[in-house]
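Write out the 3D structure for:
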Amino acid sequence: MTMTASRARATGCQGYSETHPRTKETASVARGLVRTACAAWGLGDETAETAALAMSELVTNAVRGGTACA
């Protein structure tokens, strides 16, 4: 099940949140979300790609090393 939420933060920037299963495909979804957020915030392509790469690494590490919630 995927849950998505979008709401304004105290800074005035739109915030995004999604919950996904702990699978390798989730890294691709996360990269897409980061690219979308960066575009909505008017950030450049280079910044978006750097952020997407960082997110991909974080999600991959969580998928590989995470444990199921009790």
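The mean pLDDT is 81.
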